[in-house]
Structures are given as structure tokens and as C-alpha cells.
Amino acid sequence: MFLSEIHSSISSGFPIKLGMTNFLIKCKFNFMNSEKVIEVVGLTKKYKKLIAVNNLNLNVYKGDVFGFLGPNGAGKSTTIRMLLTLIKPTSGNIKIFGKELNKNRKEILSRIGAIVEKPDFYLYLSAKKNLEILSKISGKEIPKSKIMEMLKLVGLDKRANSKVKTFSHGMKQRLGIAQTLLHDPDLIILDEPTTGLDPQGMKEIRDLIIYLSKEKGKTIFLSSHILREIELIATRMIIINKGTTIIEGTVEELLNSDSQKVRIEVDDINKTLEIIKNTEWENHFKSIEKNDLIFEIDKTKIPQLAKFLINNNIEVSAVVPIRSLEDYFLRITEESVK
Ligand SMILES: Nc1ncnc2c1ncn2[C@@H]1O[C@H](COP(=O)(O)OP(=O)(O)O)[C@@H](O)[C@H]1O
Ligand SMILES: [Mg+2]
Description:
338 residues, alpha+beta, Rossmann fold, Alpha-Beta Plaits, six-stranded mixed β-sheet, four-stranded antiparallel β-sheet, 33% helix, disordered N terminus, binds adenosine-5'-diphosphate, binds magnesium ion
């Protein structure tokens, strides 16, 4: 196995504040010291009546493994194609490495390595020969030693002289990543790199991405339609659906929260607030929405809270847990395949 020494857990150091209304979470970040690698503002792509990407904003910071998550058809590939200037935005602005993409296209693209579609190789030539040809096509001077170095990095050095047609899908994906690394890019953009791979192949790609981030200091922009994939390797993430942002934040804060929000409908809000005053429940009270009280509380404590209110003669007509991000993502994913 290659890269076996890599730790597969990464945590993010960015503080974040969450405020949740109808699953729309607005996050405030403290990124004073971080350099923006990608800055997208109001990005929109229309295909006739269809709005594939709708006023999208996102920021990727240096050193991020940025998870770009969304169900099929959410607009991920369309966004990535605009980042790579393969298609033109209908409106909006993209800055990469602090510069306007459309005015510094060549310079910016020379610092990016990307796999958008499934990488294409000459199946009857060896892995090494493929990389030699592809580096020649790219018009850049890439020493032969660099090719072997990259094959080693992705765990294919022992198969360097094997024909690509003998490779598994996962090996071809890794060869694709080796190709994107030949010119030593600062930013690597991968569109669903683990799609169609078996669990072992997925793990190898994940380990490779973590290695490139942690050991090689690359910034990585990674799209997926699988929450778990992003959760395992990303430091920050955004979820998009129907071309627009649903949530953005650090993976740690968005997914690893033990507490749960719950909506409680009572007959008398003022009386309820009076009753919880100076009790442990007061600390869990978050807000009033319409005629409901919102509490943030450990799941296991929800029955106790309901009982406390009823015992104090509050009429409780509904207790509705607010769905977690995971449930929510599953729901939009199910909707997207309908
Ligand atoms: N060239 C195109 N012409 C028309 N519609 C397109 C084109 N490319 C993508 N779309 C539509 O834009 C939406 C977003 O697609 P895409 O960016 O491929 O989503 P994702 O990569 O998240 O699965 C989809 O509804 C898709 O059908
Ligand atoms: Mg796609």
C-alpha cells in the first residue's frame, strides 16, 4: 500500500458561529490571516431557461481541502468548468490566486491541476509513456525524473511500464492525479474523483488527497455528491443545490455537533419563558420563531424538557426536532433523483 503512514483525520482550526433558520446556516468566519485562493462572487450560468448555477458565492482559502457537495444536477461540474474557463459565466466574478480569472487566464491556469471528466489515456501505452506524451502535449518542459516521482507519489511506480488497459478504474484515477501534478500546481481541482470506485479505490484517492494537502501544501477543491466522502477529508465545505448555496462552514462544526435543535409549540410563550427562568432549560433556549420556542439541546434530553413544561401546566402541542444536516442532505439528494 502506498501512503500508509498518512493520518486520515484532519481537523480545521477555523472558528465559526452558526445561526440556523430553515436549514439555511449563515456562518461568520475569522479568516483574517488566510489567503484566498478562490473567490467566487454572484456566479451564474444559464442554459436558456435552466439556471445551472445561481448567484453562487464561495471562498477557498490556502491550505483548504474544500468540499464542494451537492446532489446530482446541483451545478458542481458547471461551476468547475467556469473555474477552468472551459465555459463562460452568464454573470458573476471569479478571482483565483487574488487575480481576475478572465484577465489572467493563462497565468492562473498554469498554477492549477484539474480532472473534470474521467481522465483519458492511451490504453495500449504504459503509464509512464502516457505521462511523457501528455507532458509534451502540455508544452511544458517536464523532466523524466518528475514523471517517475509522480508515479511513485500516487503508488503506481511499480506499474510504470504496464499498459494502462491493465489498470483498474482506481489506478486510472490515480494516474489522472499524477498527470495533474506534473507541473507542480498550487491548486488542485477534482470533480468527483471517487465516483465509480470500490471502497478500497476510494480510500486510496482519499489518502492521496490528504497527503497532497498535508505534506505537499496543496490547496484542494473537491466536488462530490456523497456527504461522507467530504466529511472524511475536507476541512471546509459548501453544500449547493439547484445551483445555489445552502450551507457553508467548517466540516467539524457542521457535522460533528452533538446537540440538536428542537421546536416546541406551546399555548403561552410568555408563561413558558417565565417558567424556564433560572432553570437548566434557560441556557438551552435559543429563540422564538412565530409561536414556537427553539431550544438547542442534547437529543436525549428532549423528553425531559417536554415533561418539565407539561408538569408546569404548559400545554405542549408539538415537539419537532429540527433535522440535522445529514438528514437534510439525504432529503435533497432523494429529491434530486426523483
Ligand atoms: N451544456 C449544458 N446545456 C444545458 N444544460 C446543462 C448543460 N450542462 C449542464 N446542464 C444542466 O445544468 C444543471 C447542473 O449540471 P451539473 O453542473 O453537471 O451538475 P452536477 O455536476 O452537480 O451533477 C443540470 O440540470 C444539467 O442538466
Ligand atoms: Mg458533475
